[in-house]
Design brief:
Elements (H helix, E strand, L loop, with lengths): L1 H24 L9 H9 L2 H15 L8 H45 L6 E2 L2 E8 L10 E7 L4 E8 L3 H18 L6 H12 L9 E9 L2 E7 L5 E2 L5 E2 L17 E5 L6 E4 L1 H4 L14 H7 L4 H16 L8 E8 L17 E4 L1
Parallel strand pairs: 9-12
Antiparallel strand pairs: 1-2, 2-11, 3-4, 4-5, 5-6, 6-9, 7-8, 7-10, 10-11
Protein name: Serine/threonine-protein phosphatase
Organism: Streptomyces spectabilis
Keywords: Hydrolase
Length: 356
């Protein structure tokens, strides 16, 4: 609102200045009167542009009608430009309203696909940072969620190829399928196959979804990775937990396997999408996820503070430049489980691997 007032003041001042020059100098400066409606066309309403155009015409005709062909041409020119200003302002306002509606729709859709998670699910403390790629009404394809199963907390992080309405539709299908089956399917490998089967009708021949499932059990995590960037485990050193046998993403005949990783008290898992690793600095260098600064950031006392420190590092790395891909960060820290509660709640799977 304040910006519009400034533009209105500028347009009126331009009109008044042009009128003063014309009247005081007695010069045929009709073209100066075009400044008002032309400025209005860029930032103000069609009604304001029409009023300034009418004022320009009135000032042009002030005193006496046009006495020559040149003066008549000036009047017609002001009338034509004023009409153009009204049409342009009207079209611009309609486009701005449509963009506002699309932006609100995008925000609503993005919030549905990236719901706020509680600070704790079961015995796991969580912190989430989700931000779509910069741009007007850009709808991303990142999906995250958390559920509490009979065996313990289960996390989902998925990244749908592309952006826009198609990516949003597939992302919604991922979230719906996960919520239907995550709490009742004990085996994360079978869950990954089930999600792939559910998504089949939604995916085109070139569509795919990278997927990360993490189940937390006392002292360890069970990970299923289908084409997703590997999670990062904190500790004395940062360690990328690459799967022992890489699997294609969902939609491309995935072959998931179960990866078991040990978690000592205080260790955290960072799940992220490629918006983090694809961020570039001025020299086109990727974000150094294994740098000592990242280890220091992720060691902050509270998970939310750790993510805030990490995003600050990312901002400095990119120099504040807009991100070209959606970014989702999910930091999980299991709380110590009392010895009386430690039991083997792990699902049985025929394909296991262990990472110390």
């Amino acid at each position: 609102m304040e910006t519009r007032r400034k533009w209105l003041a500028t347009a009126v001042a331009a009109e008044a200045a042009a009128a003063s020059v014309t009247i005081l100098a007695q010069l045929p400066l009709h073209a100066l009167l075009l400044a008002g409606p032309m400025l209005a066309a860029q930032r103000l309403s069609a009604r304001t542009a029409a009023a300034l155009g009418a004022a320009a015409l009135a000032l042009t005709l002030l005193g006496s009608p046009p006495a020559s062909a040149h003066e008549l041409a000036s009047v017609l020119n002001i009338a034509a430009v004023s009409a153009w200003a009204v049409v342009t302002a009207h079209s611009r306002v309609r486009a701005e309203r449509a963009l506002d509606d699309m932006t609100r729709l995008a925000v609503t859709a993005q919030e549905a696909l990236a719901p706020p998670l509680p600070d704790r699910v079961g015995h796991v403390d969580l912190a989430v940072h989700a931000r779509p790629a910069d741009g007007h009404a850009r709808i991303g394809g990142d999906v995250h969620d958390a559920v509490l199963t009979a065996a313990g907390p289960r996390l989902l992080l998925a990244d749908v190829k592309g952006h826009g309405v198609q990516a949003m539709r597939v992302a919604a299908a991922v979230l719906a399928a996960f919520r239907r089956t995550a709490a009742t399917e004990p085996d994360p490998v079978r869950l990954a196959h089930a999600l792939d089967e559910h998504l089949g009708p939604e995916l085109g021949p070139e569509d795919f979804v990278t997927l990360l499932l993490v189940d937390f059990h006392p002292g360890e995590a069970h990970i299923v990775n289908c084409g997703h960037p590997p999670p990062l485990r904190t500790g004395r050193r940062l360690q990328l937990l690459s799967p022992p046998r890489p699997s294609p993403p969902l939609g491309l005949r995935p072959a998931p396997c179960l990866q078991r990783v040990h978690l000592t008290p205080g260790q955290r898992l960072l799940l992220y999408t490629d918006g983090l690793t694809d961020a570039r600095d001025a020299d086109r260098a990727p974000f150094p996820l294994d740098a000592p600064q990242c280890q220091a950031a992720l060691a902050a006392p509270a998970p939310h503070d750790a993510l805030r420190s990490l995003t600050d590092l990312l901002h400095r790395h990119t120099g504040g430049a807009p991100l070209t891909d959606d970014l989702t960060l999910l930091l999980a820290q299991p709380a110590p489980v009392p010895a009386a509660r430690v039991h083997d709640a792990s699902p049985r799977s025929a394909d296991r691997s262990s990472t110390a």
